[in-house]
Amino acid sequence: MPVVPTLISLQVGVPRNVTRDGQEVLTGIFKTHVEKRVRMRSLNLDGDRQADLSVHGGPNKAVYVYPSENYPYWKNELPGVDLPWGAFGENLTTSGLVESAVCIGDRFTIGTAEVVVTQPRLPCFKLNLKFDRDDMVKRFLASRRTGFYLRVLREGEVGAGDEIIPVHQDENRVSVLDALRLHLHESVSRDLRDRALQVEYLSPSWRKEFSEQV
């Protein structure tokens, strides 16, 4: 029988100031594991906030998901680095949902909430800050193990151990990895780009970018 995707860990955090290279930066990338069930709302999880709303947060990036399947890769890449669930700033650490299989526009229920996949994550300099190294953004993007964002279609409560139940597969079948490759110009498939533009829940910023590709 196929394995049902599962929410294996839940993390939230509020922005805090961190000093690096003598400069103070406000960031929400540091997340703390929570055991209790949490309300998932249209802009974030209860107890979670984003620092710079010009590039983070909003309805199309309300919740960040990172596959647990990626952690063994990073444990090999970053020997000696502590990598608890939530190490990459994700709200939801999952099993059974990887970037090559999950598609933009796929919808799921988690607990009593319903969500839809909107875009891959693009790392910013705060990932370097989180790991205290200058190459982490570059390595994260090069790995193609970026995770993805969710839009909340129906608010509800979620908690570790919840099954993540597929309720609709987007018919265009543009995976998170496909979208990332289009963004990086690794794929010049006009068919793939056209299918991506047909996805109802593709984030507006990504839709604009793909529509401008020639």
Would you write up a description of this structure?
The chain is of the alpha+beta class. The chain has a single domain (6-212), classed as PK beta-barrel domain-like (M1 Pyruvate Kinase, Domain 3), CATH 2.40.33. The protein has helices at 71-77, 126-131, 136-143, 176-183, 190-197, 204-212, and strands spanning 6-12, 16-20, 23-27, 32-33, 38-40, 63-67, 92-95, 107-110, 113-120, 148-154, 156-158, 164-168. Strands 4-1-7-6-10-9-8-12 form an eight-stranded mixed beta sheet. Strands 2-3 form a two-stranded antiparallel sheet. Strands 5-11 form a two-stranded antiparallel ribbon. Helix 1 (71-77) links the parallel strand 6 (63-67) and strand 7. The radius of gyration is 17 Å and the shape is globular.
Note the main attributes of this structure.
6 helices; M1 Pyruvate Kinase, Domain 3; two-stranded antiparallel sheet; 214 residues; 21% helix; 12 strands; alpha+beta
What number of structural domains do the residues give? Answer: 1
Question: What's the SSE pattern?
Answer: EEEEEEHEEEHHEEEHHH
- Structural classification: alpha+beta
Q: What is the H level of CATH, i.e. the homologous superfamily?
A: PK beta-barrel domain-like
Shape estimate: globular
Strand tally is: 12
Classify the fold: give the CATH topology: M1 Pyruvate Kinase, Domain 3
Task: Assign a percent range to the helix content.
Answer: 10-25%
Cα distance spanning the termini:
43 Å
Averaged pLDDT, please?
Answer: 92
For the biggest β-sheet, the strand order reads 4-1-7-6-10-9-8-12
Number of helices: 6
Name of the CATH first level:
Mainly Beta
Largest sheet at a glance? 8 strands, mixed
- Global Rg: 17 Å
Model regions low in confidence, pLDDT < 50 over at least 5 residues: none
Give the name of the CATH architecture. Beta Barrel
**In percent, how much strand structure appears in the residues?**
25-35%
